[in-house]
Amino acid sequence: MNCISTDFNTVWPLYAEALTQPRFDEKEFARIKQDAINNLKAQNSQPDYAINKYAEQVAFAGRDYAKDPAGTEANLKSFTADATKAYYQSVLNRGRMLIVVVADLDKADIESKIKTMLDGIKVGTPFTLKKSSFRIYKNTFTATPKELATNYVEGITGAPQPGTPDFNAFQVAMRIFYDRHFLDVRTNNGLSYAPLTYFDGGVTPSARVVVSTTQPDAYIKVFDQLVDKIKTGGFTDAEVKNMKTTYLTSFYYKQETNEAQASSLAANEVLHDNWKRSLTLANDLKKLTTDDVSNVFKKYIGNISWVYQGDPKKVSPVMYINGTIKRADNPVMH
Question: Is the model's pTM score more than 0.85?
């Protein structure tokens, strides 16, 4: 819910009704379902979406993360308004709810309205978010031939859990890695238009590397050399100092609305079991040292689950499996 304070008393009853008594109108449900099917078809035709979906199916095989939360065309078509409504009612309970309010309103009034709404919702069983660690024990390479204008490569490996001491350091490390990776892959070698690396810090956290390239073998050489350089030499003091400032700037300029602040508080409570992290992040990052950031990169960036979509004649799987740095103390391989 998001509204100006003068409209609060008008909007609140509508919000409470929508939450506790949604209509699930047959005609509107059919329209929304068809929109979901159309969106899924559109996504599946996009190479960037396809490689990410493929990478998750391979890396997280046997885990819930291998499933696409957008569903499949088959299961979307099977949904009915009545069945979806019944499912919604089965999960609507206080044991699954977290209510966050960011507002310049009378606290007692808000608490009274929330209590009245909650009185009409069953208590339910307390819900515990299932978190799981993820680790790749050896490099793997899985390919699917596709006729595309370029070739797509994605690698996934494990990362620190939310709420652990390594989490903030890894956020900083992966942001520095993004800059170095972009510089080496695009600027210095012209191997990809938009090379990407990022930290997916969800309940099964992972680190991701994504590129589209006409020269996948040349890319993995550059990647291995970059990782080797960071693992042997670490990050610089200047890099860590500048990235901590950049990260905090990005975090705080996204907190300019009540809605954004509420989302941040909720996310930190759900993922980190600590809503106060949204308020203490600046001080938490100040405590990070260059060694913290370098060491956490060494700890988590190791073996990788690689997937490939494109021309199979353009890629040498052995280079992704065995690595390209032939040295006894090669820190890229484990």
Answer: yes
